[in-house]
Design a protein that fits this description.
With about 325 residues, the protein is α/β, with parallel strands linked by helices. About 40% of the residues lie in helices and about 20% in strands. A six-stranded parallel sheet has the order 3-2-1-4-5-6, sandwiched between helices. The longest helix has 22 residues.
């Protein structure tokens, strides 16, 4: 049995590092879903973490029971899953990549200790820019890629599917396609592989006598790419959907069967890319984020993916951390 096969993740005990809007929403969603038997909240502002814990405890009569606690970073140990949402928030008009210097400094202050005390845990990076921060976490921890991965474009993919479902007035679960590459402005919407049920999206549109024009497709693309900016302009943060996306990933880590999710994971040869962290379809289970799949992309999509990788790699290299 290989080392990968032998090491199975057990996520009964989950720590959430950073209990701002995203971290607190993730804890709430996890409590509702019954995803863990113990949830540990960690925040630099301990009183805030205590307040969130107190509020969440009042949910217990209505949900699956779970043990809730607050801890300092040096008290976090024996966790099966550690979800990192800590970091500076994205400001109106600021790109996710603009955050990288600030959040790298924050990670440097705690990640080595956290990974040293939890060497067998899975680490899910949610902090933006998630692709760069996933690579930073890998560098700081020295852990394997199947163990340290980012939430990637799971949320972007959900947004894409939802907008297609709205256009065709069909349930989102019948829409199958992906957003790959950077979780950000250079992400690639894979129209060439978009399916509704057993039909390619163009075939489905023809059968329904609907016109999916280039203008409609462009509007959908912009709505996916601009979603976070528009929400942040109006309410200051996005947290509901990413909270649910994070819980979905966590639940997949508890299963013996594989799920296919577009997590941000270190590239190990797919599309001839190495080291850079990007989202492409990835198998996820109790073995971690363990296998990449190459999609048969159109020429334009492949070119856009390689450009996305180049952009993310340039930002990471600017940090001077090495490969």
């Amino acid at each position: 049995m290989s080392q990968v096969e032998a090491h199975l993740f057990h996520i009964d005990k989950v720590a959430i590092i950073g209990v701002g809007a995203v971290g607190a929403t993730t804890a709430y969603a996890m409590l509702q879903a019954g995803s863990a038997s113990e949830i540990v909240l960690v925040d630099l502002d301990r009183r805030r973490a205590e307040g969130e814990m107190m509020d969440l405890q009042h949910c217990l009569p209505f949900t699956e029971h779970a043990k809730l606690s607050v801890a300092d970073l040096d008290e976090v140990e024996q966790c099966g899953l550690i979800i990192i949402t800590a970091g500076a928030a994205q400001k109106p008009g600021e790109s996710r990549l603009d955050l990288v210097q600030r959040n790298t400094r924050i990670y440097s202050g705690f990640f080595p200790l956290l990974s040293e005390r939890n060497p067998d845990a899975a680490f899910m990076i949610v902090t933006n820019p998630v692709d760069v921060m996933t690579r930073v976490a890998l560098k700081l921890s020295g852990l394997p890629a199947r163990q340290v991965f980012g939430s990637g474009t799971v949320l972007d993919t959900a947004r894409f599917r939802n907008l297609i479902s709205q256009f065709f007035n069909i349930l989102p679960r019948h829409v199958h396609t992906y957003v790959i590459g950077e979780h950000g402005d250079s992400e690639v919407l894979v129209w060439s592989r978009a399916m509704i049920g057993p039909f390619h999206i163009s075939e489905y549109a023809e059968q329904r006598d609907l016109s999916l024009t280039p203008e409609v497709a462009e509007r959908i693309e912009q709505d996916v790419r601009q979603a976070a900016y528009r929400i942040i302009e109006r309410k200051g943060a996005t947290h509901f959907a990413i909270g649910l996306a994070t819980v979905r990933i966590a639940e997949c880590l508890s299963l013996s069967q594989d799920s296919v999710l577009t997590l941000s994971r270190r590239m190990e040869g797919s599309y001839r890319l190495q080291n850079v962290c990007l989202s492409i379809p990835t198998l996820v289970s109790r073995h971690g984020a363990h296998t990449h799949f190459e999609l048969d992309l159109s020429a334009n999509e492949r070119s856009a993916l390689l450009r996305s990788a180049e952009i993310v790699d340039e930002v990471y290299q600017s940090l001077g951390l090495g490969d």
